[in-house]
Automatic annotation (TrEMBL):
Its EC number is 1.6.5.5. The lineage of its organism: Bacteria, Pseudomonadati, Pseudomonadota, Alphaproteobacteria, Hyphomicrobiales. The keyword Electron transport does not apply. One of its GO terms (cellular component) is cytosol. Residues 11-322 form the Enoyl reductase (ER) domain. GO terms for molecular function: mRNA 3'-UTR AU-rich region binding; NADPH binding; quinone reductase (NADPH) activity. It comes from the Bacteria. This is NADPH2:quinone reductase. It is an enzyme of class 1 (oxidoreductase). The keyword Oxidoreductase applies. Keywords: NADP, Oxidoreductase.
Length: 324
């Protein structure tokens, strides 16, 4: 038996129930992990509320974590007890121990802590594919990153800056503005006090941005389209304020022959080769100092509901973890 946080009925933070669950011996191709840290993400909220549909009820929440291998099932040769590992996998992370297919795991380098590993596998890999695959950021690009002081935002600002881009970020408070500036933003816009579209046009001398990375959704749309230069790309990768409403594809034409995409991590790490490419690139960026991993909040696993309340009320900055 181990302790886990399960959802028996979708709803508010009170839907997160801390209880005992049974973990069987790992089956063929599976690895059992004793978890050291679990990442907290807005996608966890989407599943808890039912915005994203879980395969069934009850389900264990959470999508990324790190820990050590304690047992392997028949046929597993790539991992052994004692290995330090991390993973991204849909649901099941809010627990003390669990079994996973070995193909979903990556080994943590010695210089990456369990806490860092727990927040890099979803947030870090998301930033990797956004900046390297969805739109390949280069030194001459101007990028706009919404929610620049969040877990993904701070990593994205750092990495975009390291790639030589001119980085503009939006945040909700002066404290968050200072944090974004310290993590690579050339300009920070307080969206509660300023019209972010007007400020982007002012900063860019009416040229606009090459790409907008928007994990906010409803509250920043369609303003994000107005921040782009002709043939720029709108990358909608999250719904923190609610989903982007349906819109006419003609809007992309009206704003200058824009491109728009709604990517998800699963489609960029769908194969073992892609997962290892992303993880290797990400870990190298941390080890060589291009990225530091700001973990600003830690909660006990039993306090997952409080963590969700803080996340949804915008009280958190950077990454947050749960400790089993």
């Amino acid at each position: 038996m181990t302790k886990a946080v399960r959802v028996h009925k979708v709803g508010g933070p009170e839907a997160l129930v801390y209880e005992s669950v049974d973990v069987p011996a790992p089956g063929p191709g599976e690895v059992r992990i004793r978890q050291h840290a679990v990442g907290l993400n807005f996608i966890d909220v989407y599943y808890r509320t039912g915005l994203y549909k879980a395969p069934g009820l009850p389900f264990i929440a959470g999508n990324e974590a790190s820990g050590e291998v304690v047992a392997v099932g028949p046929g597993v040769t790539h991992f052994h007890p004692g290995d330090r590992v991390a993973y991204y996998h849909n649901l099941g992370a809010y627990t003390g121990e669990r079994n996973l297919p070995w193909e979903k795991l990556v080994k943590l380098p010695d210089h990456i802590t369990h806490e860092q590993g727990a927040v890099l596998m979803l947030k870090g890999l998301t930033v990797w594919y956004l900046l390297h695959k969805t739109f390949k950021v280069e030194p001459h690009h101007r990028v706009l990153i919404h929610a620049a002081a969040g877990g993904i935002g701070l990593l994205a600002c750092q990495w975009a800056r390291a790639l030589g881009a001119h980085v503009i970020g939006t945040v909700g408070s002066r404290e968050k503005a200072e944090l974004a500036e310290a993590n690579g933003c050339d300009h920070v816009i307080l969206y509660n006090e300023e019209d972010f579209v007007a400020r982007v046009k002012q900063i860019s001398r009416n040229e606009g941005c090459d790409v907008v990375y928007d994990g906010v959704g409803k509250a920043t749309f369609p303003g994000s389209l107005s921040c782009l230069k002709p043939r720029g790309m709108f990358v909608s990768f999250g719904n923190a304020s609610g989903p982007v409403p349906p819109f006419s594809i003609a809007e992309l034409n009206n704003h200058g022959s824009l491109f728009a995409t709604r990517p998800k991590l699963n489609d960029y790490v769908g194969t073992r080769k892609e997962l290892l490419e992303g993880a290797d690139t990400l870990f190298a960026a941390v080890i060589n100092g291009k990225l530091h991993v700001p973990i600003n909040h830690a909660y006990a696993l039993k306090d997952a509901a409080k963590a969700h309340i803080d996340l949804e009320s915008r009280k958190t900055t950077g990454a947050s973890i749960l400790k089993p």
